[in-house]
């Protein structure tokens, strides 16, 4: 028996033990999806930079485990020296979201039923030069803080705020060009 302890991790950095599972008897281990950033295969869950810890998070990884008892466990680990692996329980809804983001349609169908037409939420394609791909852009800490403040003022998501700011800037530029 390979007993793995599961913890609840709080935002303040504390954790508490909430259970365990036997790794030798799990039903399935589902690997994360990755994307190529030009240098490494990076987890679709890893932000490009953690401003709190002051280091790149591309070395952080996740996989989803379904235990024999039917519990969903998120295994989070890092290739960064000194980081300890973490195991935490997920709700069925959180597990479904994780599977969707990872493009794990086979597991969604197996454990949650056939997905509806279209995949719904998930990661858009990154800039590979092809049509419809979205560019990947790193923002500095100052600009990110300004965008977050604007999003909070408008009670909007960061993504919606960035889209609105781009639209506003392009509209202003087009107006300036049409009125010489």
List the SSEs and their pairings.
Blueprint: E1 3-9, E2 15-22, E3 28-31, E4 34-36, E5 41-43, E6 60-66, E7 72-78, E8 86-90, H1 92-101, H2 105-112, H3 141-153, H4 158-178
Antiparallel strand pairs: 1-2, 3-6, 4-5, 6-7, 7-8
Give average pLDDT, whole number. 80
Shape: elongated
Please state the CA-atom Rg, rounded to the nearest Å: 20 Å
Which strand order do you get reading across the main beta sheet? 3-6-7-8
Q: If helices are DSSP runs of H or I spanning 4 or more residues, what is the number of helices?
A: 4
User: Low-confidence parts lasting 5 or more residues at pLDDT below 50?
Assistant: 48-52
- Main sheet properties: 4 strands, antiparallel
Given the helix and strand composition, which structural class is it?
Answer: alpha+beta
Overall domain count:
2
Order of helices and strands: EEEEEEEEHHHH
Distance between the termini: 76 Å
Give a written overview of the molecule.
It is a single chain. This protein is an alpha+beta fold. The protein has 2 domains: 3-112, no CATH class; 141-178. Helix content is 29%, strand content 24%. The strands form 3 sheets. A 4-stranded antiparallel beta sheet has the order 3-6-7-8. A two-stranded antiparallel sheet has the order 1-2. A two-stranded antiparallel ribbon has the order 4-5. Helix 3 packs across helix 4 (158-178).
